[in-house]
Amino acid sequence: MRELYPPIEPHASGLLEAGDGHSVYWEECGNPQGKPVVFLHGGPGGGASARHRRLFDPAKYRIVLLDQRGCGRSRPLASEPEADMSANTTWHLVADLELLRQERGIEKWQVFGGSWGSSLALAYAQKHPERVSELILRGIFTLRPSELTWFYEGLAGNIAPDSWEGFVGALPEADRVPGRLIDNYAKLLFDPDPAVHQPAAVAWATWEFTNLTVQPRPDLIATAQNPVSSTAFARIENHFFRNDGWFTPEQLIKDAPKLAGIPTVIVQGRYDICTPAVTAWDLHRAFPQAQFHLIEDAGHAYDEPGILDVLITSTDKFADRS
User: Fold this and answer.
1) Which residues on neighbouring strands pair with residue 293, listed in sequence order?
2) Which of 26, 132, 227, 320 lies in disulfide reach of 125, CB 3.0 to 4.6 Å?
């Protein structure tokens, strides 16, 4: 079984003034002269972590990580009362990536994204294919209504009824209406009173983090109990989901042919509750040139057994590709 590379610290970091009042945190690790790669975190609103740096050989890669608008070390946080969500959309984030690439003097980079990060990676690569050397995509998510309905409107509760009870139980009884749960959660998450929005945010994040892995991971679930970070996370997700990611129907699947010529790896856990394997399969069928890995006995998280093996094998394989 492959393991993450040893811990590493950034050698450069800063805040990218992205416009619209947003400052986006970025950092670089590894070899300043190495192959550029940008890591796109999940959520949206999940933020990058020190563990994410370790997916890449630091001797060979120039590793760029960022916290997308409204989360992590970027400012303002979506949990703050003055945060303006109108300037936080998929296409703002795509523009931020292009601005960061230009600011850091990178001509072309590998794009690595999991979960929501796979959505953003696809959106970016389909808009700027000439700037992408390779794609590594994990836990494929495209924000189709069927995907959102599955995990946030009750269907996944048939598999995880215990944690689903906590998610739906955070809503007033009158608002526990299938097909309206995302919208009804918005009323709580965007209520200005912390006594209202913080418990709702913790319930939202707990539902998601509980179902990231096949076997329970108390360390992941514990991170959902932070009311500030969970508020930013849940608000951003809810905002994106209510707007279907600002995608036209099936956009990321239909536009897969735009990726022709970009070496691509798709990695998916068969027992992924959060982003079921059918979406990865649909992407694979639309883009058969990509290498497709359906991992048995794995769920959603990047460090699930089997998934991590393929991810690091893939980054190692691409490290020496000019």
Assistant:
1) 267
2) 132
